[in-house]
Design goal:
Elements: H1 63-92, H2 94-100, H3 102-124
Length: 125
Protein backbone atom coordinates (compact mmCIF):
# COMPACT_ATOMS: atom_id res chain seq x y z
CA UNK A 1 0.00 0.00 0.00
CA UNK A 2 1.21 3.47 -0.71
CA UNK A 3 1.57 5.97 2.13
CA UNK A 4 -0.69 8.62 0.58
CA UNK A 5 -3.81 6.35 0.40
CA UNK A 6 -3.58 5.11 4.00
CA UNK A 7 -6.24 6.41 6.40
CA UNK A 8 -4.57 6.99 9.79
CA UNK A 9 -7.76 5.90 11.60
CA UNK A 10 -7.95 2.47 9.94
CA UNK A 11 -5.52 -0.40 10.52
CA UNK A 12 -3.64 -1.73 7.53
CA UNK A 13 -5.25 -4.82 5.95
CA UNK A 14 -2.90 -7.84 5.86
CA UNK A 15 -1.91 -9.18 2.46
CA UNK A 16 -2.87 -12.81 3.25
CA UNK A 17 -6.22 -13.77 4.81
CA UNK A 18 -6.09 -15.12 8.35
CA UNK A 19 -6.53 -18.88 8.49
CA UNK A 20 -6.70 -20.61 11.90
CA UNK A 21 -4.25 -23.45 12.45
CA UNK A 22 -5.43 -26.80 11.13
CA UNK A 23 -8.06 -25.38 8.78
CA UNK A 24 -7.56 -25.18 5.06
CA UNK A 25 -4.80 -26.50 2.86
CA UNK A 26 -1.38 -26.98 4.37
CA UNK A 27 1.22 -24.80 2.80
CA UNK A 28 4.32 -22.74 3.52
CA UNK A 29 2.28 -20.14 5.47
CA UNK A 30 0.34 -22.81 7.38
CA UNK A 31 2.24 -26.01 8.21
CA UNK A 32 -0.65 -27.57 10.14
CA UNK A 33 -2.14 -30.74 8.62
CA UNK A 34 -5.53 -30.51 6.96
CA UNK A 35 -7.96 -32.04 9.48
CA UNK A 36 -10.66 -32.46 6.86
CA UNK A 37 -8.68 -34.47 4.32
CA UNK A 38 -8.83 -38.29 4.44
CA UNK A 39 -5.65 -40.01 5.64
CA UNK A 40 -3.02 -40.61 2.98
CA UNK A 41 -3.40 -43.90 1.17
CA UNK A 42 -7.19 -44.01 1.65
CA UNK A 43 -8.88 -44.98 -1.62
CA UNK A 44 -11.49 -42.58 -2.92
CA UNK A 45 -15.07 -43.85 -2.53
CA UNK A 46 -16.87 -45.02 -5.63
CA UNK A 47 -19.45 -42.58 -7.03
CA UNK A 48 -22.66 -42.89 -5.07
CA UNK A 49 -21.05 -44.95 -2.29
CA UNK A 50 -21.68 -44.10 1.36
CA UNK A 51 -19.71 -41.03 2.37
CA UNK A 52 -19.19 -39.88 -1.19
CA UNK A 53 -20.10 -36.28 -2.00
CA UNK A 54 -21.53 -37.49 -5.31
CA UNK A 55 -24.99 -38.99 -5.31
CA UNK A 56 -26.65 -40.08 -8.51
CA UNK A 57 -29.67 -38.03 -9.59
CA UNK A 58 -33.09 -39.32 -8.60
CA UNK A 59 -35.17 -40.74 -11.40
CA UNK A 60 -37.57 -38.21 -12.85
CA UNK A 61 -41.18 -38.44 -11.70
CA UNK A 62 -44.12 -37.80 -13.93
CA UNK A 63 -46.48 -34.92 -13.22
CA UNK A 64 -49.21 -37.44 -12.33
CA UNK A 65 -46.96 -38.98 -9.65
CA UNK A 66 -46.15 -35.54 -8.25
CA UNK A 67 -49.85 -34.61 -8.14
CA UNK A 68 -50.67 -37.90 -6.41
CA UNK A 69 -47.97 -37.20 -3.78
CA UNK A 70 -49.32 -33.67 -3.22
CA UNK A 71 -52.87 -34.99 -2.83
CA UNK A 72 -51.74 -37.67 -0.36
CA UNK A 73 -49.80 -35.12 1.70
CA UNK A 74 -52.76 -32.71 1.63
CA UNK A 75 -55.07 -35.46 2.93
CA UNK A 76 -52.56 -36.41 5.66
CA UNK A 77 -52.23 -32.75 6.66
CA UNK A 78 -56.02 -32.46 6.90
CA UNK A 79 -56.19 -35.52 9.18
CA UNK A 80 -53.38 -34.14 11.36
CA UNK A 81 -55.13 -30.76 11.71
CA UNK A 82 -58.39 -32.48 12.67
CA UNK A 83 -56.62 -34.60 15.31
CA UNK A 84 -54.86 -31.52 16.68
CA UNK A 85 -58.13 -29.56 16.84
CA UNK A 86 -59.83 -32.42 18.71
CA UNK A 87 -56.94 -32.66 21.18
CA UNK A 88 -56.91 -28.89 21.85
CA UNK A 89 -60.69 -28.91 22.37
CA UNK A 90 -60.37 -31.80 24.81
CA UNK A 91 -57.57 -30.18 26.81
CA UNK A 92 -59.19 -26.74 27.03
CA UNK A 93 -62.64 -28.03 28.07
CA UNK A 94 -62.61 -27.10 31.79
CA UNK A 95 -65.74 -29.10 32.63
CA UNK A 96 -64.24 -32.36 31.40
CA UNK A 97 -61.00 -31.50 33.22
CA UNK A 98 -63.01 -31.05 36.47
CA UNK A 99 -64.66 -34.46 35.96
CA UNK A 100 -61.33 -36.19 35.21
CA UNK A 101 -59.43 -34.64 38.15
CA UNK A 102 -62.19 -34.36 40.77
CA UNK A 103 -60.19 -36.05 43.57
CA UNK A 104 -57.09 -33.86 43.08
CA UNK A 105 -59.22 -30.70 42.96
CA UNK A 106 -61.00 -31.58 46.23
CA UNK A 107 -57.67 -32.30 47.96
CA UNK A 108 -56.27 -28.98 46.71
CA UNK A 109 -59.35 -27.07 47.87
CA UNK A 110 -59.19 -28.63 51.36
CA UNK A 111 -55.45 -27.86 51.65
CA UNK A 112 -56.03 -24.27 50.51
CA UNK A 113 -58.84 -23.90 53.07
CA UNK A 114 -56.57 -25.08 55.88
CA UNK A 115 -53.78 -22.69 54.84
CA UNK A 116 -56.10 -19.68 54.53
CA UNK A 117 -57.82 -20.56 57.82
CA UNK A 118 -54.49 -20.97 59.60
CA UNK A 119 -53.19 -17.65 58.32
CA UNK A 120 -56.42 -15.90 59.35
CA UNK A 121 -56.13 -17.41 62.85
CA UNK A 122 -52.51 -16.26 63.17
CA UNK A 123 -53.39 -12.70 62.15
CA UNK A 124 -56.03 -12.45 64.91
CA UNK A 125 -53.47 -13.09 67.63
Amino acid sequence: MSEENVDPGKPEVPEKPFRPEGIGPAGPANNAPNRWAPPEGTPAPAPGAHGSPYTPPRPKRTSAEIRADIDAQRAELGRSVDQLRDRVTEITDWRSQLRKHRKQIIIGAVATGFIVGGLAALRRR
